[in-house]
Amino acid sequence: MRGAAADPPDPSVKLHSTGPSGQNTFTGYGEGYVLVNGVRHATSVIVLADRVLPWDAPGFGGLAVEHFAGLAALGLEVVLLGTGARLRFPDPRLTRALREAGVGLEVMDIQAACRTYNILAAEERRVAAALLFD
């Protein structure tokens, strides 16, 4: 006997804020977007505790030295690079400015970057999530 067709699962994920009030946190994500404090972003973006910046990186294939030099100038401890739906590692020559500034770089997919950012931001670490949407 066949049961009634179930509705397809909702592809979005809601996250709970754990950081100090007034701080940017990821409140959800889905295919091709993230929510920061409930506001949807579907283009490359840099999320910091106190602001959200558009990122002119056109996608993983368009990453250049300048994109990482801009991140290095933000005075961070660590950058979480969300490379889209799948994990991809940038050429180390592109990320040299981060190394020279003593900024850690963690590369992960966007979903992992959102979750990790919320944890580090809640610990009041100087962290940025730099997210790429292809």
Oligomer: single chain
**Number of alpha- plus pi-helical segments:** 3
For the record, the count of structural domains works out to 1
Task: Tell me the distance between the termini.
Answer: 43 Å
CATH topology: Hypothetical Protein Mth938, Chain: A
Mean pLDDT equals 89
Task: Please report the total strand number as a whole number.
Answer: 9
Say which CATH homologous superfamily is assigned.
Answer: MTH938-like
Largest sheet: 5 strands, mixed
Which percent bin holds the helix content? 10-25%
Uncertain runs: 1-11
Q: Whole-number radius of gyration?
A: 16 Å
String of helices and strands: EEEEEEHEHEHE
Shape: globular
- What share of residues are in beta strands? 25-35%
CATH top level?
Answer: Alpha Beta
Just name the CATH architecture: 3-Layer(aba) Sandwich
Blueprint (SSEs and pairs):
Layout: E1 13-14, E2 26-30, E3 33-36, E4 39-41, E5 45-47, E6 52-54, H1 65-72, E7 78-82, H2 96-100, E8 104-108, H3 110-122, E9 127-131
Parallel strand pairs: 7-8, 7-9
Antiparallel strand pairs: 1-2, 2-3, 3-4, 5-6, 5-9
